[in-house]
Design brief:
By secondary structure, this protein is mainly α. The protein has 2 domains: 129 residues; 181 residues, no CATH class. The protein is built from 13 helices and no strands. α2 runs parallel beside α5, α11 crosses α13 and α12 runs antiparallel to α13. The chain is globular, with a radius of gyration of 21 Å.
């Protein structure tokens, strides 16, 4: 339950946005909530930008937990995110984005999705820019608990079903159809098997080239990843990891987001969300995998994408001895 608590506010805004599709009062409440969220981010960003100056004026030495460069980076990210988030609330900006994305400029749900996607991108890019620090910290932390991983992936599913309006705009059958959860055909399973083999070959080739060209970065990322997923280094652990990530991430990205954000933007969101790999070749590899999963979603359905994702994660763990 504690995993969900920080996300109650965005889930509430998503709930209100779905009500706002058919109710004008709820629609305005959605925009007010998003505006307040962006205003809060703007205030926090400005305070972080002013942090070094405030310390000098007060004569207080800088805290090692919030160095000037870190405060400035977080502050700038907060300001930029807030301003872009406020821009997303303008109908003209959404009409412009609607030329490239399959969104309805008048939909409060789509406006909410744009703002939250923006927060995902800027937060992830900020963490990726702090990659060395993040990786060093990850290598020292306890291994990820399976229950925490499953809860996090269930949170993805919760965002997806809430976003498409389960219980408000769609019933269970309509929600599954909107998310692309259909029974795969034999042709779909054949495509899935081919992509699993291709992904494993891509991962193996990327790892060897990465280790050859940039061994220090490879070792750092590998050490952090091994520590993070140490509890999943068994067939049962690999199955839990594969199924949870396959169902959670595919339901959100390929199921809920791709029909509106299209393949390129959805794949970017999918890639930058894997902040545990920092700025490394792994992010480029995940982007390629996301693009191919997006193609598979168009040719089949989300169920097939989840099968590929789960099988790839599971087999990748079993093949770890073949990696450098």
């Amino acid at each position: 339950m504690w995993v969900i608590l920080p996300y109650l506010l965005p889930l509430t805004i998503i709930f209100v946005a779905n009500l706002g599709v058919t109710r004008r009062g709820w629609r305005w409440l959605t925009y007010v909530g998003l505006a307040l969220l962006n205003a809060l981010a703007l205030v926090v960003g400005l305070l972080l930008l002013a942090w070094p100056l405030l310390l000098r004026l007060s004569g207080t030495p800088g805290s090692p937990l919030l160095q000037e460069a870190t405060a400035s980076s977080f502050g700038l990210a907060g300001v930029v995110t807030a301003l872009l988030g406020l821009a997303c609330l303008m109908p003209g900006a959404r009409r412009l984005l609607g030329r490239y994305l399959a969104i309805d400029p008048a939909s409060p749900v789509h406006a909410t999705a744009l703002v939250f996607a923006l927060y995902l991108v800027t937060t992830s890019l900020l963490l990726l820019s702090q990659g060395q620090t993040v990786l060093s910290a990850a290598a020292e932390l306890d291994s990820l608990d399976p229950a925490t991983l499953v809860a996090g992936q269930l949170l993805f599913v919760l965002f997806a079903v809430a976003g498409v309006g389960l219980g408000l705009r769609r019933n269970a059958r309509q929600t599954l159809a909107r998310l692309g959860w259909h029974r795969p055909t034999l042709r779909h399973l054949g495509l899935a098997a081919g992509l699993v083999v291709a992904f494993l070959a891509l991962d193996l080739a990327t790892s060897w080239v990465w280790h050859w060209l940039w061994p220090e970065n490879y070792e750092l990322v590998a050490r952090a990843s091994q520590q993070m997923f140490a509890r999943f280094a068994t067939p049962l652990g690999g199955l839990i990891l594969g199924l949870s990530a396959g169902i959670g991430e595919e339901t959100l990205f390929r199921g809920a987001l791709q029909p509106r954000f299209r393949i390129p933007l959805t794949s970017i969101l999918f890639a930058v969300g894997h902040v545990q790999y920092a700025l490394s070749p792994a992010i480029a590899e995940i982007l390629i995998i996301g693009l191919l999963l997006g193609w598979l979603r168009q040719k089949s359905n989300t169920t097939t994408c989840a099968i590929v994702h789960a099988a790839y994660n599971f087999l990748d763990l079993l093949l770890m001895p073949l990696f450098p």
